[in-house]
Amino acid sequence: MRGESSEQVLNGQKIFEELFIIEGGNFNKAGEVASRIKVILKNMGIPDELVRRAALVAYESEINIVSYAKQGYMKLTVNPDLIMIESIDEGEGIVDIELAMQEGYSTANDRIREMGFGAGMGLCNIKNYSDYFDLRSKIGKGTYLKMIIESQQKNPKTE
Amino acid sequence: MTLQDVKDILDAEMIVGGDKLDMEVKTAFGADLMSDVLAYAKAGSLLLTGLTNPQVIRTANVLDIAAIIVVRGKKPPQETVNLADEMHIPILCTKYILFETAGRLYQKGIVGCVEKVQSKS
Ligand SMILES: Nc1ncnc2c1ncn2[C@@H]1O[C@H](COP(=O)(O)OP(=O)(O)OP(=O)(O)O)[C@@H](O)[C@H]1O
Ligand SMILES: [Mg+2]
Hints:
The complex is a heterodimer of chains A (159) and B (121).
Chain A: E1 2-10, E2 13-23, H1 32-43, H2 48-68, E3 69-79, E4 82-91, H3 97-100, H4 110-114, H5 122-129, E5 132-138, E6 142-150
Chain B: H1 3-9, E1 13-16, E2 27-30, H2 34-40, E3 46-49, H3 54-63, E4 67-70, H4 78-86, E5 91-93, H5 98-107, E6 111-112
Parallel strand pairs in B: 2-3, 2-6, 3-4, 4-5
Antiparallel strand pairs in B: 1-5
Helix pairs in contact in B: 3-4
């Protein structure tokens, strides 16, 4: 699941990056990357509340990749100002983004529902918990999600 | 109250986390839908659920849930137990149904981690 991790200094700012691979359809592993991201952020000494929000958006998007794509990646970037999580998958893509963003809309199958998912809340939840959120998708190609959590909370989110 | 009190009130069996019985808990959330747990449950709360797959533990880990109470006499499979052990998340099993479990805890002072959900604009 782990890819390369790197730490570099750019303009005097320390930047941490790590890439993770996510296997579509493998529900046994679903959530491993989010757990891993949580440990990394905790070890960096980032406040619990920010770690929790980052882990949550990572988990929701990881579950979506496992549920709706054949293969995907997640990239974690941390600098002193923000935590950025990007999720990229090679899946079916989202036909109607506006519809997918509506609470309650879901195309989840029985297998996903059996595990307690598929209520059509994930994307709304991701949006609620990130300071910046961008979703792009190409039908038949895949989906790209960018989620940013700022370290300095300008507009504190509800926990 | 402590996790030991929760265990006594629910006549529950401790599956994982016997070393955490003195942990203090004040709030809880109950659902069989992990999507809802992710949207509403708060850090430090008990999670009351009838689901026993490993995703319950993953969800609890992401949210910093204090402990999981498995209701309706269900027993979590070994893979769930192993993951909970690894992540230091206590699991208690009770024979009471979700409603009865929630009622018994509420009567003794545990409250919901959110009282009412915010209406969406
Ligand atoms: N990465 C993705 N690739 C393709 N389709 C997606 C992807 N992510 C979401 N979708 C589509 O958008 C819908 C809504 O996603 P969302 O995460 O909000 O809810 P859900 O996954 O159905 O349920 P929940 O997240 O509440 O368990 C999905 O049912 C699916 O149709
Ligand atoms: Mg989802």
